[in-house]
Specification:
five-stranded mixed β-sheet, alpha/beta, disordered N terminus, three-stranded antiparallel β-sheet, 12 strands
Protein backbone atom coordinates (compact mmCIF):
# COMPACT_ATOMS: atom_id res chain seq x y z
CA UNK A 1 0.00 0.00 0.00
CA UNK A 2 1.38 3.45 -0.92
CA UNK A 3 1.51 6.46 1.36
CA UNK A 4 -1.77 8.09 2.30
CA UNK A 5 -2.44 11.38 0.45
CA UNK A 6 -1.74 14.54 2.43
CA UNK A 7 -5.12 16.25 2.99
CA UNK A 8 -3.36 19.61 2.51
CA UNK A 9 -1.96 18.77 -0.93
CA UNK A 10 -2.95 21.28 -3.62
CA UNK A 11 -5.39 19.55 -5.99
CA UNK A 12 -4.62 19.42 -9.68
CA UNK A 13 -7.15 21.88 -11.11
CA UNK A 14 -7.78 22.87 -14.68
CA UNK A 15 -7.78 26.63 -15.13
CA UNK A 16 -10.64 26.11 -17.59
CA UNK A 17 -12.74 24.72 -14.70
CA UNK A 18 -12.00 27.84 -12.67
CA UNK A 19 -12.92 30.17 -15.54
CA UNK A 20 -16.19 28.31 -16.10
CA UNK A 21 -16.88 28.36 -12.35
CA UNK A 22 -16.42 32.16 -12.19
CA UNK A 23 -18.64 32.63 -15.24
CA UNK A 24 -21.46 30.60 -13.67
CA UNK A 25 -21.00 32.44 -10.34
CA UNK A 26 -21.12 35.79 -12.16
CA UNK A 27 -24.36 35.03 -14.01
CA UNK A 28 -26.05 32.69 -11.50
CA UNK A 29 -26.95 30.44 -14.38
CA UNK A 30 -25.45 27.51 -16.25
CA UNK A 31 -27.46 28.50 -19.32
CA UNK A 32 -26.26 32.11 -19.46
CA UNK A 33 -22.66 31.07 -18.69
CA UNK A 34 -22.81 28.53 -21.52
CA UNK A 35 -24.14 31.18 -23.92
CA UNK A 36 -21.40 33.63 -22.89
CA UNK A 37 -18.69 31.02 -23.34
CA UNK A 38 -20.12 29.66 -26.57
CA UNK A 39 -20.48 26.19 -25.05
CA UNK A 40 -23.40 23.84 -24.47
CA UNK A 41 -25.04 23.78 -21.05
CA UNK A 42 -24.06 20.11 -20.59
CA UNK A 43 -20.39 21.00 -21.25
CA UNK A 44 -20.55 23.68 -18.55
CA UNK A 45 -22.16 21.18 -16.14
CA UNK A 46 -19.37 18.68 -16.80
CA UNK A 47 -16.70 21.29 -16.08
CA UNK A 48 -18.32 22.21 -12.76
CA UNK A 49 -18.72 18.51 -11.82
CA UNK A 50 -15.04 17.90 -12.56
CA UNK A 51 -14.05 20.87 -10.39
CA UNK A 52 -16.28 19.70 -7.53
CA UNK A 53 -14.76 16.20 -7.71
CA UNK A 54 -11.20 17.55 -7.72
CA UNK A 55 -11.98 19.63 -4.62
CA UNK A 56 -13.31 16.68 -2.62
CA UNK A 57 -16.87 16.39 -3.85
CA UNK A 58 -18.52 19.34 -2.07
CA UNK A 59 -21.18 21.07 -4.17
CA UNK A 60 -20.19 24.56 -5.35
CA UNK A 61 -23.70 25.57 -6.43
CA UNK A 62 -27.22 24.93 -5.16
CA UNK A 63 -29.50 24.14 -8.11
CA UNK A 64 -32.59 26.35 -7.90
CA UNK A 65 -35.82 26.25 -9.96
CA UNK A 66 -34.38 29.18 -11.94
CA UNK A 67 -30.61 29.33 -12.05
CA UNK A 68 -28.04 28.43 -9.39
CA UNK A 69 -26.65 29.95 -6.19
CA UNK A 70 -23.18 29.61 -4.68
CA UNK A 71 -22.92 27.26 -1.70
CA UNK A 72 -20.70 28.02 1.27
CA UNK A 73 -17.90 26.07 -0.47
CA UNK A 74 -18.50 28.03 -3.66
CA UNK A 75 -18.25 31.36 -1.83
CA UNK A 76 -14.94 30.28 -0.30
CA UNK A 77 -13.58 29.31 -3.71
CA UNK A 78 -14.48 32.54 -5.56
CA UNK A 79 -11.61 34.81 -4.38
CA UNK A 80 -9.06 32.03 -4.88
CA UNK A 81 -10.32 31.31 -8.39
CA UNK A 82 -10.23 35.04 -9.21
CA UNK A 83 -6.64 35.29 -7.97
CA UNK A 84 -5.49 32.30 -10.03
CA UNK A 85 -7.23 33.50 -13.22
CA UNK A 86 -5.99 37.09 -12.81
CA UNK A 87 -2.42 35.93 -12.19
CA UNK A 88 -2.56 33.84 -15.35
CA UNK A 89 -3.89 36.80 -17.30
CA UNK A 90 -1.07 38.91 -15.87
CA UNK A 91 1.50 36.34 -16.91
CA UNK A 92 0.03 36.31 -20.41
CA UNK A 93 0.20 40.12 -20.63
CA UNK A 94 3.82 40.23 -19.46
CA UNK A 95 4.87 37.48 -21.84
CA UNK A 96 3.11 39.27 -24.71
CA UNK A 97 5.02 42.46 -23.84
CA UNK A 98 8.28 40.52 -23.82
CA UNK A 99 7.46 39.08 -27.24
CA UNK A 100 6.65 42.53 -28.55
CA UNK A 101 9.87 44.00 -27.18
CA UNK A 102 11.97 41.21 -28.70
CA UNK A 103 9.90 40.87 -31.86
CA UNK A 104 6.40 41.78 -32.90
CA UNK A 105 5.65 44.86 -34.94
CA UNK A 106 5.46 48.63 -34.71
CA UNK A 107 3.23 50.60 -37.06
CA UNK A 108 3.89 54.32 -37.27
CA UNK A 109 3.19 57.25 -39.55
CA UNK A 110 4.97 60.55 -40.15
CA UNK A 111 4.40 63.76 -42.06
CA UNK A 112 6.66 64.12 -45.10
CA UNK A 113 9.25 66.59 -43.75
CA UNK A 114 9.94 64.39 -40.74
CA UNK A 115 11.23 61.78 -43.21
CA UNK A 116 14.14 64.02 -44.22
CA UNK A 117 16.28 63.34 -41.13
CA UNK A 118 14.25 62.71 -37.97
CA UNK A 119 12.59 59.42 -38.99
CA UNK A 120 15.53 57.70 -40.70
CA UNK A 121 17.86 58.45 -37.78
CA UNK A 122 15.28 57.15 -35.30
CA UNK A 123 14.73 53.98 -37.35
CA UNK A 124 18.49 53.31 -37.51
CA UNK A 125 18.86 53.66 -33.73
CA UNK A 126 15.74 51.61 -33.06
CA UNK A 127 16.76 48.73 -35.34
CA UNK A 128 20.12 48.47 -33.60
CA UNK A 129 18.31 47.92 -30.29
CA UNK A 130 15.20 46.02 -31.40
CA UNK A 131 16.26 44.07 -34.49
CA UNK A 132 13.35 41.64 -34.17
CA UNK A 133 10.59 44.26 -34.42
CA UNK A 134 8.90 44.56 -37.82
CA UNK A 135 8.53 48.25 -38.64
CA UNK A 136 5.88 49.54 -40.99
CA UNK A 137 5.73 53.23 -41.90
CA UNK A 138 3.11 55.43 -43.53
CA UNK A 139 3.46 58.98 -44.79
CA UNK A 140 0.65 61.51 -44.66
CA UNK A 141 -0.61 64.83 -43.41
CA UNK A 142 -1.13 65.22 -39.68
CA UNK A 143 -4.99 65.03 -39.73
CA UNK A 144 -4.96 61.79 -41.77
CA UNK A 145 -2.30 60.25 -39.52
CA UNK A 146 -4.36 61.06 -36.43
CA UNK A 147 -7.40 59.40 -38.00
CA UNK A 148 -5.32 56.28 -38.66
CA UNK A 149 -4.08 56.34 -35.05
CA UNK A 150 -7.65 56.63 -33.69
CA UNK A 151 -8.82 53.77 -35.90
CA UNK A 152 -6.11 51.47 -34.48
CA UNK A 153 -4.12 51.22 -37.73
CA UNK A 154 -1.08 52.96 -36.22
CA UNK A 155 0.68 52.60 -32.86
CA UNK A 156 2.29 56.04 -33.10
CA UNK A 157 2.08 59.09 -35.38
CA UNK A 158 4.69 61.82 -35.82
CA UNK A 159 2.66 64.99 -36.23
CA UNK A 160 3.02 68.76 -36.10
CA UNK A 161 0.96 71.78 -35.12
CA UNK A 162 0.84 72.84 -38.79
CA UNK A 163 -2.59 72.18 -40.24
CA UNK A 164 -4.56 73.08 -37.10
CA UNK A 165 -5.44 69.46 -36.34
CA UNK A 166 -7.16 68.83 -32.95
CA UNK A 167 -4.17 67.37 -31.08
CA UNK A 168 -5.78 67.61 -27.63
CA UNK A 169 -7.51 64.24 -28.00
CA UNK A 170 -4.18 62.36 -28.06
CA UNK A 171 -1.27 61.63 -25.75
CA UNK A 172 1.47 63.94 -27.07
CA UNK A 173 5.18 63.28 -26.57
CA UNK A 174 7.07 66.48 -27.41
CA UNK A 175 10.00 66.00 -29.77
CA UNK A 176 11.08 69.51 -30.79
CA UNK A 177 10.06 73.09 -31.49
CA UNK A 178 11.06 73.97 -35.02
CA UNK A 179 12.44 77.25 -36.22
CA UNK A 180 11.80 78.42 -39.78
CA UNK A 181 14.05 79.40 -42.66
CA UNK A 182 13.27 81.26 -45.87
CA UNK A 183 14.79 79.66 -48.94
CA UNK A 184 15.87 82.23 -51.55
CA UNK A 185 17.84 81.80 -54.79
CA UNK A 186 21.59 82.31 -54.45
CA UNK A 187 21.44 85.65 -56.29
CA UNK A 188 18.59 87.13 -54.21
CA UNK A 189 19.16 90.62 -52.72
CA UNK A 190 18.72 89.21 -49.19
CA UNK A 191 20.95 86.16 -49.73
CA UNK A 192 23.89 87.74 -47.88
CA UNK A 193 21.82 88.51 -44.75
CA UNK A 194 22.37 86.47 -41.59
CA UNK A 195 18.61 86.42 -40.87
CA UNK A 196 15.37 88.02 -42.03
CA UNK A 197 11.98 89.03 -40.73
CA UNK A 198 9.02 87.82 -42.74
CA UNK A 199 7.65 91.34 -43.43
CA UNK A 200 10.83 91.96 -45.48
CA UNK A 201 9.36 89.45 -47.96
CA UNK A 202 5.78 90.76 -47.93
CA UNK A 203 5.97 91.58 -51.67
CA UNK A 204 7.67 88.33 -52.70
CA UNK A 205 6.21 85.54 -54.79
CA UNK A 206 5.83 82.48 -52.58
CA UNK A 207 5.99 78.79 -53.34
CA UNK A 208 3.74 76.76 -51.05
CA UNK A 209 1.99 73.43 -50.82
CA UNK A 210 -1.38 75.18 -50.72
CA UNK A 211 -2.90 78.19 -52.45
CA UNK A 212 -4.12 79.41 -49.05
CA UNK A 213 -1.67 80.16 -46.22
CA UNK A 214 -4.07 79.06 -43.48
CA UNK A 215 -3.02 75.79 -41.90
CA UNK A 216 0.44 75.84 -43.55
CA UNK A 217 3.83 77.20 -42.48
CA UNK A 218 2.76 80.49 -44.07
CA UNK A 219 0.45 81.00 -41.08
CA UNK A 220 3.56 82.75 -39.69
CA UNK A 221 3.14 85.48 -42.33
CA UNK A 222 -0.48 86.04 -41.31
CA UNK A 223 0.69 86.61 -37.73
CA UNK A 224 2.90 89.42 -39.08
CA UNK A 225 -0.04 91.15 -40.70
CA UNK A 226 0.44 90.38 -44.38
CA UNK A 227 -1.08 87.83 -46.71
CA UNK A 228 1.63 86.18 -48.81
CA UNK A 229 1.08 85.95 -52.56
CA UNK A 230 1.30 82.24 -53.48
CA UNK A 231 2.58 82.24 -57.07
CA UNK A 232 3.14 78.47 -57.37
CA UNK A 233 1.49 75.59 -55.53
CA UNK A 234 4.09 72.84 -55.21
CA UNK A 235 3.69 70.02 -52.71
CA UNK A 236 6.96 68.09 -53.00
CA UNK A 237 9.95 69.52 -51.16
CA UNK A 238 12.61 68.79 -53.81
CA UNK A 239 10.44 70.47 -56.43
CA UNK A 240 9.98 73.54 -54.21
CA UNK A 241 13.77 73.93 -54.13
CA UNK A 242 13.86 73.72 -57.92
CA UNK A 243 11.35 76.56 -58.20
CA UNK A 244 13.36 78.69 -55.76
CA UNK A 245 16.66 77.98 -57.54
CA UNK A 246 15.05 79.05 -60.84
CA UNK A 247 14.15 82.42 -59.31
CA UNK A 248 10.39 81.81 -59.37
CA UNK A 249 9.84 82.72 -55.73
CA UNK A 250 10.80 81.98 -52.15
CA UNK A 251 9.55 79.34 -49.76
CA UNK A 252 9.53 78.53 -46.06
CA UNK A 253 11.67 75.63 -44.89
CA UNK A 254 11.25 74.00 -41.47
CA UNK A 255 14.29 72.95 -39.47
CA UNK A 256 13.54 69.25 -40.16
CA UNK A 257 14.27 69.80 -43.87
CA UNK A 258 17.10 72.31 -43.54
CA UNK A 259 19.91 69.76 -43.94
CA UNK A 260 18.76 68.63 -47.38
CA UNK A 261 18.90 71.97 -49.23
CA UNK A 262 20.58 72.13 -52.63
CA UNK A 263 23.71 74.30 -53.01
CA UNK A 264 22.15 76.96 -55.29
CA UNK A 265 19.53 77.82 -52.63
CA UNK A 266 20.30 79.95 -49.57
CA UNK A 267 18.55 79.45 -46.24
CA UNK A 268 17.95 82.52 -44.09
CA UNK A 269 16.81 82.03 -40.46
CA UNK A 270 13.52 83.76 -39.72
CA UNK A 271 13.61 86.09 -36.73
CA UNK A 272 10.24 85.69 -35.01
CA UNK A 273 9.97 86.60 -31.36
CA UNK A 274 6.21 86.03 -31.46
CA UNK A 275 6.05 82.25 -31.51
CA UNK A 276 7.82 79.09 -32.59
CA UNK A 277 6.86 78.14 -36.13
CA UNK A 278 5.57 74.74 -35.11
CA UNK A 279 5.94 72.00 -32.54
CA UNK A 280 6.54 68.39 -33.51
CA UNK A 281 5.11 65.55 -31.43
CA UNK A 282 4.86 61.78 -31.37
CA UNK A 283 1.18 61.07 -30.76
CA UNK A 284 -0.21 57.90 -29.20
CA UNK A 285 -3.72 56.93 -28.10
CA UNK A 286 -4.66 58.70 -24.88
CA UNK A 287 -5.23 56.46 -21.86
CA UNK A 288 -3.20 53.56 -23.24
CA UNK A 289 0.36 53.02 -22.03
CA UNK A 290 2.74 52.63 -24.98
CA UNK A 291 3.88 49.02 -25.53
CA UNK A 292 7.60 48.35 -24.99
CA UNK A 293 8.43 48.58 -28.71
CA UNK A 294 6.55 51.88 -29.00
CA UNK A 295 8.29 53.26 -25.90
CA UNK A 296 11.66 52.24 -27.34
CA UNK A 297 10.87 53.99 -30.64
CA UNK A 298 9.83 57.11 -28.71
CA UNK A 299 13.26 57.11 -27.09
CA UNK A 300 14.94 56.81 -30.49
CA UNK A 301 12.81 59.69 -31.82
CA UNK A 302 13.79 61.92 -28.90
CA UNK A 303 17.48 61.16 -29.49
CA UNK A 304 17.13 61.91 -33.20
CA UNK A 305 15.21 65.13 -32.47
CA UNK A 306 18.03 66.33 -30.20
CA UNK A 307 20.36 66.26 -33.24
CA UNK A 308 18.11 68.49 -35.40
CA UNK A 309 19.43 72.11 -35.48
CA UNK A 310 16.24 73.83 -34.35
Amino acid sequence: MGPMPDPHDVPGLSTTWLRVFLEVARHGSFTVAARTLGWTQSAVSRQISSLESALGGAALFDRLPRGVRLTEAGRVLVPHAETVVERLHGAGRELAELREAAGGRLRFGAFATADAALVPRAIAAFRARRPGVRLSREEGLTPALLDRLSAGHLDLAIVSTTGRAPLEAYALHHLLDESLYVAVPAGHPLAAETSVRLPQLADADWISGSARPEGTLLDAALRHGFRPRVAHVVAEWTAKQGYVAAGLGVTLVPALAAESVRPDVVLLPVRDEGATARAVYAATVRGRSPAPATAAFLGALREAAARIPV
